[in-house]
Design brief:
alpha/beta; TIM Barrel; 8 strands; 46% helix; EC 4.3.3.7; 4-hydroxy-tetrahydrodipicolinate synthase activity; 4-hydroxy-tetrahydrodipicolinate synthase; lyase
């Protein structure tokens, strides 16, 4: 059974030039850095990638560039943000799939209209599956334009189709995740928690890893935490708590704040630029991020740089 690997799946940031054009050299360097620091896979064209602020052609270009740069070192997935009827969505999925990504991710709130029933949602996805045979898919409960959380019977149906390999859970509920994991069972689909604050108990319940902010900036620490989540060691929960605080620190001006942090804390050179949230990060806003970078650098990085496979 072909399943995606467990561990951190960064929701990749998109680097921009000063004119807010795509910085492909920066994207290459970021791809390399994430893989070298233990990313299990890469989620390009996600909300953190500012997918709604990328043109359709830019989305394709980003997906193709990351896939080419990864070059088999890690699987790559990318969202299809098409709206409209199932035909339009299937056409866009086929375009994204043609970039060579390992799975194309459906945004739950874009599949049907906000007031559509769950049966209508399933019917639309069934039609999409028939229209794009052979394409592996994923699910992302993206909070924008609104969050559509899927009921457990829909999650069971998705898993049993055999076509879905990735599920980004944004329920922020361990109870909900556990229910979903019970119906996913040993199918191809794997559940990845979006919330670092509940990562350890979710992995103990059967989740495959994290797909969230923390993995974008500290993939090595998240990799270590995923590998050691079953250890009953004080360091495990201590690291989870620290990563939770770190993630909260970048929330206000995200994603520019995460880019600012990467510029301060990694070998990467980033401009703190965002199309989605273009607010400038000045010295006052940047000082807590610089101090966070210094604090996180004190962690035993030799231990954290382990790249184990579960």
């Amino acid at each position: 059974m072909n399943r995606l690997p467990a561990g951190p799946w960064p929701v990749m940031l998109t680097p921009y030039r000063d004119d807010l054009g795509l910085d492909f050299d920066g994207l290459d360097a970021y791809t390399d850095w994430l893989i070298e620091l233990g990313a299990a896979g890469l989620f390009a064209v996600s909300l953190s990638s500012e997918m709604y602020d990328l043109s359709p052609d830019e989305q394709l270009a980003v997906a193709a560039r990351v896939r080419t740069r990864a070059d088999g070192r890690a699987p790559v997935i990318a969202s299809a943000t098409a709206t409209g009827d199932w035909r339009a969505q299937a056409d866009r999925i086929a375009e994204i799939a043609a970039t060579g990504v390992d799975a194309v991710v459906l945004i739950t709130s874009l599949v049907v209209a906000p007031d559509a029933t769950e049966n209508a949602w399933i019917d639309t996805v069934e039609r999409i599956l028939d229209a794009v045979p052979g394409v592996d898919l994923g699910i992302y409960e993206c909070p924008l334009p609104f969050k559509r959380l899927l009921p457990v019977h829909t999650v069971r149906w998705l898993a049993q189709t055999g076509r879905f390999t990735f599920y980004k859970d944004t329920s922020h509920s361990l109870e909900t995740m556990t229910e979903r994991l019970n119906v996913i069972g040993d199918t191809r689909m794997r559940l990845y928690n979006a919330a670092i604050g509940s990562l350890v108990p979710s992995i103990r319940a059967g989740a495959a890893g994290l797909s969230g902010y923390a993995a974008n900036v500290y993939p090595d620490l998240v990799a270590w935490l995923c590998h050691h989540a079953d250890d009953h060691d004080a360091d495990v929960l201590r690291l989870q708590h620290l990563l939770t605080v770190a993630e909260h620190c970048i929330n206000l001006r995200y994603p520019a704040s995460a880019k600012y942090l990467l510029d301060a804390a990694s070998r990467l050179t980033w401009r703190a630029r965002s199309r989605w949230k273009p607010e400038h990060i000045g010295a006052h806003e940047g000082e807590p991020l610089r101090q966070l970078a210094e604090l996180m650098a004190e962690i035993d990085m030799g231990r954290a740089r382990l790249h184990p496979a579960r």
